[in-house]
């Protein structure tokens, strides 16, 4: 019903959000064991009885689609049908979940213990739970949580169990399967495993999609997967992957069910368990392969305080309503529905738009803690200090003043900010700082980022740091951890920041010129942020709306003018985007200066990292966060998309061919000479 | 309770009722409702439902369960009546083309511009048409009614219409449910309704070739009765056969419930004669099949009165069946019932059997009228077969016709297949009752309209693999749309499979709702039906199986037959009728 509300972005201030309840509170006051063993009787879609894992597998293997694909593969390869059937059966064996209530109860008990130790509270919007319960009874439901931590899906199941809702089946990456025992445990708690890549494997795709569709169509359980595909290491939402969403929408588009409801779920962690791990990973210390023993080593995290978690179940989005006027379902009328077909252009762009809309819905309901604002301010200050060469930090009262200012601004932009209004701001600031003291040094009433991370993963076995490079990387761990908090608020400021940067770069106040710059930046950064393709004009209007509403800009038919009181806002907004602008420039510089014929995609990150380290050490680059491999990869993806770099089949697979002229001009554009006249077809206002 | 003999025409001749339609049909038929004036459902003073008149076996009987069903399904209340406002005087005076009328007089063809005659021919039986009539709202109606007596009369009328630029709308049985009979409001010329009812003779029967040459105005029951007297039948029995005409069947591509044995109208016609503004179109011989380019009959079949008037048809006939046997099967649910029908369509040669299934939700209707039947069933199933959920079970009714041995053989075959799908034979009586219902169901809508309940049925055809999905989605869409539009009571939203083909089936949807509290119920109804049709099309269903397009479903024609297809049809229209004499504006 409310999908329109989910996808409308007119005045974010008007957005209504539900209240939260702390579900750990009850756990602290009553027996975990009784809780784990309590009567669990969730309601299901149309009142169906859940089907056993074995029966489900049979349904899949006997489906018309699998029969068809088996026949097809047999024709193409000449292999015997029986043989392929066995393969299909083996794929399914490897993939399928085997949900068992006893395992769920085990998790319910253990997780209660763990969560109580780790977190102060787990807050859930109970109205969202009620909406979900309603939706589950009426339609097949897909749960789409944001993905920031391994914890996410256990947490989801834990919540659903607590509220007596049907437990979801969860699409998980095969890498979990490496952890033998844990993998099986997860399988028994409802996870099913998919290979990370199976490009051309028709049979695998068929088994996989049929498996998901069978569960969905029959309403045996809600299906859960992560639109972002993997955990975001940066706390920035990742651009959505479409494969599973395509599969989930298919039964509706083909008329096999009346509707499918998609429920975006926003999980916000006050402190992410993997905080330092992610930072190291982004800096090129490879991520440890998931292993059971590794998990136990992580045990020491248990002694830390990770603050609270907020889980917000968004409005269910009806695929039927979403597709109205956008997809002609009649396109499936002329071929049997069990014959797999590539989605049409129309469907592809519909799924893509929906996916972006859903990720934005997740973003919007992410709870931001005051610390997120503090991190943004401290980072900006840190960079300012670096530019001036003095590491002075920020006075607490100055930080507080700025934080209050930013609090009001972000609220006007619609941020879901949990700032306790009844507590005096200085106290809010100091308690936020204390939870994250590992990232900070506070001396003489001045705060700055810690130059060395205390309590970080640097074990006692590691040799003490030597040399400026190590020193830099150490610092970078702290900076990237802070960046991951600042990033949580990026979606709030993104569109205004793009506009601010466009205004900043523009030589005149002509609206069309500024729009063109905006459009250029938006296009450049569409691998970096959640910017739905084709929505340039809406985004521009949204940005104008927000900046005009807050009195920072004056926008007329022809002109965009910064107001007197708007300078502070615009300065803040431009510096939000500045690290990214500089980062992309450096990547361009690298490609035009250093890239040789033999550069491959694989070598790209290590070599660009070396280049960046050199520049940072030489003081020619301010932003340590540019060391993030996430930014580097996104920049490369953007350049590939824009055609400035091409992947060719050279001696090595994935050799990169750089169009130096184009890369140079993009660098120039990012450096402030933003193109005001765009080539080719660009939207006009 | 005794039951109605399925063969309605037989009953009618026994009762010795009128044999042909009179000039002034309103003398025996309702002008603002279905069927004969003397036959209707009503709640008597004791609050019991009763069916009046003497024409049907159900006539004069009390129907015990109907009231409960009616109140339970729709939330209707006998205290809340919405009787028709009788006001047929609001008819605008006719716009006559004097020159045309003068010349018409000289031909001797009878005509009338009496208000009642004109209003009667201005409408079909769509909900909005009947509702408007009941409310006394009368829009554009024909200005004149003519009654040609034979093919040559029609030729004269069409010539005069062309000469004087008069708009002609052919009128047969008047049972249209596609707004096909509505006069286009933008039509400024004089509109003449060409009533074919007096062209109702069987001109000859050819026993060697088993064909009959018949005038196109004959209505189904008369055709069947007259052929029966000679020992033959056509086997074409649409639900409307009491009133619909042969010409109408041809013009709309009609289908009858025994089509599995005898075929649809396009399979039954051997030769058609049609009068168009360009002249008469007909083939030169009666060969059973020809390879002479596209079949020109197919320009006529389904032309919905846009090209001319069908005047005479040669039809296939068959000796009356030696043996008839009814039957019924109860399935635990609709899904298994459909699966069984699909299997039967695959395995059993289509001769000599007919199968037709009541969707599970039609069951309440059955149960209300024949409570004892369903109560009996429920008892059986609850005691003996606990797996059957009385709220989900579904009944299929069967009719076998033909040679006795073959009938029995096919019957066994069908019951064996049914058993594989969990179906249980439920006796001949139940089957026979199912058929009887066909003819009285149409009267039920008028009863509903007396108590704020508005209802309609619409049909589609769909491939087998889509049958269950389309049923589920269209039913859900109806409920969903009603809710969205403020209908306060849960609507009746149900379906049944009524015809089976090799490659698919015909599905009927029934939709009814209590419209108390709505300011513009017809508009709500139309929006819901519109949405339901969109849902049908999105789910791979056709625009219509046999009701036709008329004006009601015109907007979907080009997506249905493609723009090129529309162009082909239009170019035929442009050639045959360049001045749009047959100006009912159906189809496109």
TrEMBL record, chain B:
It is found in: Peroxisome membrane. Its EC number is 2.5.1.26. The active site is at 508 (proton donor/acceptor). FAD binds at residues 170-176, 252-255, 304-310. Substrate binds at residue 445. It is an enzyme of class 2 (transferase). It comes from the Eukaryota. Gene3D superfamilies: 3.30.160.650, 3.30.300.330, 3.30.465.10, 3.30.70.3450, Uridine Diphospho-n-acetylenolpyruvylglucosamine Reductase, domain 2 (3.30.43.10), Vanillyl-alcohol Oxidase, Chain A, domain 4 (1.10.45.10). Pfam families: FAD-oxidase_C, FAD_binding_4. Residues 138-320 form the FAD-binding PCMH-type domain. Its main location: membrane. One of its GO terms (biological process) is ether lipid biosynthetic process. Its cofactor is FAD. Keywords: Acetylation, FAD, Flavoprotein, Lipid biosynthesis, Lipid metabolism, Membrane, Peroxisome, Phosphoprotein, Transferase, Transit peptide. Pathway: Glycerolipid metabolism; ether lipid biosynthesis; Lipid metabolism. GO terms for molecular function: alkylglycerone-phosphate synthase activity; FAD binding. Catalyzes the exchange of an acyl for a long-chain alkyl group and the formation of the ether bond in the biosynthesis of ether phospholipids. Catalyzes the exchange of the acyl chain in acyl-dihydroxyacetonephosphate (acyl-DHAP) for a long chain fatty alcohol, yielding the first ether linked intermediate, i.e. alkyl-dihydroxyacetonephosphate (alkyl-DHAP), in the pathway of ether lipid biosynthesis. Belongs to the FAD-binding oxidoreductase/transferase type 4 family. Homodimer. This is Alkylglycerone-phosphate synthase. The lineage of its organism: Eukaryota, Metazoa, Chordata, Craniata, Vertebrata.
């Amino acid at each position: 019903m409310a999908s329109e509300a989910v996808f409308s972005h007119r005045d974010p201030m008007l957005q209504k959000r539900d209240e939260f309840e702390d579900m750990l509170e009850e756990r602290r006051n009553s027996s975990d064991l009784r809780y784990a063993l309590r009567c669990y009787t969730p309601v299901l879609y149309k009142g169906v009885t859940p089907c056993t894992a074995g029966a489900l597998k049979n349904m899949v293997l006997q489906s018309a689609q699998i029969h068809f694909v088996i026949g097809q593969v047999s024709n193409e390869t000449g292999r015997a049908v029986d043989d392929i059937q066995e393969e299909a059966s083996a794929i399914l064996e490897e993939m399928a979940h085997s949900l068992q209530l006893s395992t769920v109860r085990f998790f319910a008990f253990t997780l209660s213990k763990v969560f109580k130790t780790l977190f102060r509270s787990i807050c859930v919007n109970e109205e969202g739970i009620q909406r979900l319960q309603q939706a589950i009874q009426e339609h097949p439901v897909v749960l789409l949580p944001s993905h920031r931590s391994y914890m996410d899906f256990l947490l989801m199941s834990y919540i659903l169990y607590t509220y007596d809702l049907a437990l979801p089946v969860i699409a998980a990456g095969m890498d979990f399967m490496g952890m033998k025992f844990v993998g099986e445990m997860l399988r028994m708690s409802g996870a099913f495993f998919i290979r990370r890549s199976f490009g051309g494997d028709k049979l695998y795709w068929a088994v996989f999609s049929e498996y998901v569709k069978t569960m969905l169509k029959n309403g045996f359980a809600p299906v859960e997967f992560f639109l972002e595909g993997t955990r975001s290491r940066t706390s920035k939402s990742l651009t959505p992957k479409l494969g599973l969403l395509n599969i989930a929408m298919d039964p509706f588009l083909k008329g096999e069910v009346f509707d499918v409801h998609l429920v975006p779920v926003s999980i916000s962690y006050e402190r992410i368990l993997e905080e330092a791990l992610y930072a190291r990973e982004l800096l090129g210390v490879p991520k440890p392969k998931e292993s059971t023993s590794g998990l136990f080593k992580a045990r020491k995290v248990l002694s830390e305080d990770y603050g609270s978690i907020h889980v917000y179940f968004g409005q269910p989005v009806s695929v039927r309503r979403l597709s109205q006027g956008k997809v002609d379902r009649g396109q499936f009328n002329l071929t049997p529905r069990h014959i797999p077909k590539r989605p049409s252009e129309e469907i592809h762009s519909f799924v893509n738009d929906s996916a972006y809309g859903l990720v934005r819905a997740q973003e919007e309901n992410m709870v931001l803690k005051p610390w997120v604002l503090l991190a943004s301010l401290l980072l900006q200050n840190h960079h300012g200090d670096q530019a001036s060469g003095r590491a002075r930090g920020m006075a607490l009262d100055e930080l507080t003043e700025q934080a209050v200012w930013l609090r009001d601004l972000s609220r006007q932009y619609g941020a879901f900010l949990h700032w306790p209004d009844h507590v005096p701001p200085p106290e809010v600031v100091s308690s936020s700082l204390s939870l994250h003291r590992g990232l900070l040094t506070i001396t003489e009433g001045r705060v700055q980022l810690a130059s060395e991370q205390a309590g970080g993963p640097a074990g006692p076995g590691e040799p003490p740091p030597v040399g400026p490079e190590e020193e830099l990387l150490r610092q970078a761990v702290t900076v990237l951890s802070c960046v991951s908090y600042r990033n949580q608020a990026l979606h709030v400021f993104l569109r205004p920041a793009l506009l601010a940067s466009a205004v900043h770069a523009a030589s005149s106040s002509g609206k069309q010129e500024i729009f063109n710059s905006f459009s250029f930046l938006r296009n450049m950064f569409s691998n970096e942020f959640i910017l739905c393709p084709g929505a340039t004009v809406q985004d521009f209007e949204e940005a104008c709306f927000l900046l005009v509403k807050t009195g920072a800009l004056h926008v007329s038919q022809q002109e965009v003018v910064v107001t007197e009181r708007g300078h502070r806002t615009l300065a803040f907004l431009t510096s939000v985007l500045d690290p990214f602008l500089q980062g992309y420039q450096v990547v361009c510089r690298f490609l035009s200066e250093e890239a040789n014929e033999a550069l491959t995609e694989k070598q790209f990150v290590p070599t660009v990292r070396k280049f960046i380290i050199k520049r940072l050490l030489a003081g020619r680059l301010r932003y340590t966060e540019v060391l993030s491999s996430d930014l580097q990869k996104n920049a490369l993806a953007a350049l590939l998309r824009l055609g400035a770099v091409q992947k060719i089949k050279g001696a090595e697979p994935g050799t990169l061919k750089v169009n130096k002229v184009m890369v140079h001009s993009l660098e120039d554009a990012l450096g402030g000479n933003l193109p005001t006249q765009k080539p080719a077809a660009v939207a006009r206002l | 309770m005794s039951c109605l003999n399925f063969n309605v025409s037989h009953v009618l001749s026994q009762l010795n009722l009128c044999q042909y339609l009179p000039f002034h049909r309103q003398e025996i038929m309702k002008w603002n409702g279905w069927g004969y004036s003397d036959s209707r459902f009503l709640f008597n003073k004791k609050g019991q439902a009763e069916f009046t008149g003497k024409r049907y076996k159900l006539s004069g009987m009390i129907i015990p369960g109907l009231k409960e069903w009616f109140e339970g399904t729709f939330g209707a209340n006998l205290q809340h009546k919405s009787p028709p406002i009788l006001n047929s005087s609001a008819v605008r005076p006719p716009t006559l083309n004097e020159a045309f009328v003068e010349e018409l007089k000289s031909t001797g063809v009878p005509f009338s511009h009496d208000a009642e005659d004109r209003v009667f021919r201005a409408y079909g039986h769509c909900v909005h048409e009947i509702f408007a009539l009941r409310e006394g709202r009368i829009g554009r109606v024909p200005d004149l009614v003519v009654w040609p007596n034979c093919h040559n009369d029609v030729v004269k009328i069409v010539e005069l219409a062309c000469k004087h630029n008069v708009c002609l709308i052919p009128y047969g049985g008047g049972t249209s449910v596609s707004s096909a009979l509505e006069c286009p409001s933008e039509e400024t010329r004089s509109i003449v309704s060409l009533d074919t009812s007096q062209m109702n003779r069987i001109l000859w029967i050819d026993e060697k070739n088993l064909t009959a040459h018949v005038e196109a105005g004959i209505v189904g029951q008369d055709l069947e009765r007259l052929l029966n007297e000679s020992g033959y039948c056509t086997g074409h029995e649409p639900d409307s056969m009491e009133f619909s005409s042969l010409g109408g069947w041809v013009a709309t591509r009609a289908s009858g419930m025994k089509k599995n044995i005898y075929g649809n109208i396009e399979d039954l016609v051997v030769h058609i004669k049609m009068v168009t503004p360009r002249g008469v179109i007909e083939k030169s011989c009666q060969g059973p099949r020809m390879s002479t380019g596209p079949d020109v009959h197919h320009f006529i079949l389904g032309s919905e009165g846009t090209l001319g008037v069908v005047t005479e048809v040669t039809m296939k006939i068959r000796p009356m069946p030696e043996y008839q046997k009814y039957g019924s099967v109860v399935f635990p649910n609709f899904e298994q019932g459909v699966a069984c029908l699909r299997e039967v369509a695959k395995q059993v040669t289509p001769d000599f059997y007919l199968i037709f299934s009541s969707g599970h939700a039609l069951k309440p209707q059955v149960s209300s009228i024949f409570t004892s039947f369903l109560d009996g069933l429920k008892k059986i199933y609850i005691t003996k077969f606990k797996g059957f959920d009385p709220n989900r079970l579904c009944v299929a009714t069967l009719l076998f016709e033909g040679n006795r041995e073959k009938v029995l053989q096919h019957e066994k075959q069908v019951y064996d297949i049914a058993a594989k799908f969990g179906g249980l034979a439920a006796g001949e009586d139940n089957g026979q009752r199912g058929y009887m219902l066909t003819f009285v169901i149409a009267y039920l809508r008028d009863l509903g309209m007396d108590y704020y309940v508005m209802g309609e049925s619409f049909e589609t055809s769909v491939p087998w693999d889509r049958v269950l999905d389309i049923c589920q989605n269209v039913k859900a869409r109806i409920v969903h749309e009603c809710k969205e539009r403020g209908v306060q009571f849960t609507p009746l939203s149900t379906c049944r499979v009524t015809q089976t083909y090799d490659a698919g089936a015909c599905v009927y949807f029934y939709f009814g709702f209590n419209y108390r509290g709505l300011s513009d119920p017809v508009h709500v109804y139309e929006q819901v039906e519109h949405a339901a049709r969109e849902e049908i099309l999105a789910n791979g269903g056709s625009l219509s199986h046999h009701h036709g397009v008329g004006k009601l479903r015109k907007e979907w024609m080009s997506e249905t037959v493609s723009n090129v297809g529309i162009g082909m049809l239009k170019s035929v229209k442009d050639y045959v009728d360049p001045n749009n004499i047959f100006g009912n504006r159906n189809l496109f």
